[in-house]
Amino acid sequence: MQKLIIFFLLALFAQQCLAQRPGEGLTPLPNKPQAPDFVLTDFDGNTHRLSDYRGKVLIVNFWATWCPPCREEMPSMQRAWEKLQQQNILMLAINVGEDEDTIFQFTANYPVDFPLLMDLDSKVVSAWPVRGLPTTFVVDPQGRLVYRAIGGREWDDPQLLAPVRALRE
After folding, report:
1. How far apart are CA 58 and CA 141, in angstroms?
2. Smallest Cα–Cα separation from 163: which of 69, 27, 19, 21?
3. At what angle are helices 68-84 and 158-166 packed, to 10 degrees?
4. Conformation bin of residue 71: beta by default, left when phi > 0, alpha when psi is -120 to 50
5. 116 belongs to a structural domain
6. Domain assignment present for 79
7. Which of 2, 5, 129, 154 is most buried, judging by how many CB atoms fall within 10 Å of its CB?
8. CA distance readout (Å), 103 to 64, 66, 72, 74, 116
9. Are 164 and 136 in contact (CB under 8 A)?
């Protein structure tokens, strides 16, 4: 009976730890370095340049279809996008090294409306201070890297988005 109680308490503790995951925040980047510019295309063949987004708050996510935390956070990114686009905060997800067919198959299970860009040769991810996948950056209206999140997040968490929204002011 005592072992059962200990097991139950450990399971409850583990569940609480996982439930607190949305509270993971954003890490401020010292010196706010300038975000490296890029030119990438999306599925529709549209060209996206980071410099085109100057003056806007931008969330830039680096991901891959084979990455479990990337897959896990994608639905919350879509939910966040549905709120943020109305608040003039933009979101881009840059796939690292995979082709259009692979990404297209992924979107059948994880549909999103925000732009999915393709970094086929991984030159863009190499220029940014990415520490693993997923890594997400928040770029301020001046084009500087203000925050970084290494690992998955619940992007529709109001606490997580509060500092992002504050950059509009």
Report:
1. 8
2. 27
3. 60
4. alpha
5. yes
6. yes
7. 154
8. 8, 10, 15, 13, 9
9. no
Contact 128, 35 (CB under 8 A): yes
Residue whose structure tokens are 């084979």: 66
Amino acid (one-letter) located at 115: P
CA-closest candidate to residue 163, choices 41, 31, 29, 39 = 29
Q: Looking at the domain assignment, is residue 74 inside a domain?
A: yes
Which range marks the domain in which residue 51 is found?
26-166
Residue 43 within a domain = yes
The CATH code of the domain that includes 121 is 3.40.30.10
CA distances (Å), origin 76, targets 52, 80, 111, 149: 25, 6, 11, 14
- pLDDT tens track of the chain, all 169 residues? 443 333 332 333 333 333 334 337 999 999 999 999 999 999 889 999 999 999 999 999 999 999 999 999 999 999 999 999 999 999 999 999 999 999 999 999 999 999 999 999 999 999 999 999 999 999 999 999 999 999 999 999 999 999 999 999 7
Total of domains in the chain: 1
